[in-house]
Amino acid sequence: MRSRLPWGDALRAGLGAPGRSRRLSSSPRSRVWRVETAGAPVVVKQIVDGPDADERYARELAALRLAAGAAAPVVPALLRTDPGARVLVLEHLDHRRPRDDWIVDHAAALARLHAVGRPEHAGMLPRQQGPDEADAASFLGLAAALDAPVPRSAPGELDDLVHRLARAPGHALLHGDPCPGNDLHTAEGTRFIDFEQASLGSGLVELAYLRIGFPTCWCVTAAARPLLERAEAAYRTAWRTETGEELHGDLTDACAGWLLRGDALVERAHRGGTDHLARIPVRDWKWGTVTARQRLVHRLGVVGRMTAGQNHLGGLSALCTRMRGRMLTRWPTLRPVPSQRP
Question: How far is CA 256 from CA 52, 86, 134, 174, 253, in A?
Answer without folding.
Answer: 28, 36, 15, 18, 5
